[in-house]
Amino acid sequence: MAIAVMYHTTAEAQNEIDALRYSQTTFGGSGRVLGMGGAFGALGGDVSSMQINPAGIGIFRKSEVSLTPAFHQFNATSVYEGYTKATDKSNLNFSSAGAVFTNIDKSKEFGWIATNFGFAYNRIDNYHVELEAEGPNAYSSLLDTYLNKVNDGAGITPELMADEYPLTAYMAFYTYLLDTIPGDPTHYFSQIPYAGILQNRKLTSNGSHSETQLSFGANHSNKFYIGATIGFPRFRYTEMLDYSEKDHKDTIPAFTSFNIGQELYSTGQGMNGKFGIIYRPHDMVRLGLAYQTPTLYTINEEFYYTVEALYDNGFNPDSTVAGLFKYSIRTPSRTTASVGLVVYKAGLINVDVEQVNYGGAKLSSSVYGFDSENKNVKDKYQSATNIRVGTEWRINPFRLRAGYAYYGNPFKPDVANNGSHESISLGGGIRGNGYYLDLAYVFTQSQSNTYFYKLDGLSPVEQHMRSHIFAVTVGFRY
Q1: pLDDT at 195
Q2: Distance, CA of 355 to CA of 335 (rounded, Å)
């Protein structure tokens, strides 16, 4: 038995998770910036300045073009009920590409000495991830969460269930995983009356989040620099989610297994503005301040939900629903304060402190209000502080770099999750006459607890995630 329907659905598939995914970005860019942990807000002189603090484009003294290919490797270990699953995924990409064109008045020592223009592409997140968790559950099933909804109060008829819970309880009802209690057409029972099932959840995602930037920067007396960037971010995100429960010990009458498959294809385009200043109160000190406006994304999503059940007698019903939806997300603004220390011509140190209020994200649509989803955004997310520290030292013609970045937890204390992560970077390079070559390695790790579904007493999946980025930048000055 199968159904297949394509329709414009309401936002059951769009929620606070999407708001966080597209709001929470990380540092990317050139090999120099990657090698310094993304800490570059008070320094400038790199094409990735357009992303971090556009005033940095005013520091350029020569025109420049650069390209940064990168290799990304993701590894994860998931532990659930004592069972461990390890996964990995890799891809090649471009971390950065760009050019800066300088217009310098060499006859001036004071006043507006230079007006520079540039354009760049910078990758600000990578969605190539694979996570899998598996383990026995002797206490509950996903179907219990459906029963809690449909059996609440006076219950619900199958017709109303199709309207209220089209992608969850109704699909389970259609495949007989839920059925009406004899003599009571508004209350239901589950084919898994008691637990003792083997649960498995596998998520595979692909895609990236990048931004194309057009920037202007100016230099006043080699003391004060201003800049502005118009950013055109875009993302492509695909997700394959498979969830299953199996009667692995053959203790549940009639029931063998069920599988839920979810496919999501999402693309989004947006626009934002960035404004920044850098001030040099002393030859050794640079102070930076940058602000990024909220970004408004227009998002198109296509998704497919499939539920398939298998019973001991060979009966194998399935149900498929497909949907299209267009909506918008406004991600929060960002403010970054930076301090740079230039130790003569020997080296430099930079510290960036960035503030982002993830609770300020908002979903909207002309056909759906998103009231409960936006309430979840405010209830679950908070303001977080991101800290980046980087250094570079010269042994002419070589450069040695190191960096550290910590991205704060976007979840409020009463939410049982941790979305923070930290990165350690190493890099090096060589500067020649009119060219440069930079190498960088970034190691990022994070831990979080996720749940197969929301139910009191359910054990979390403990996820330990690690990523490795290897990047090389080739650049030319003229």
Answers
A1: 78
A2: 5
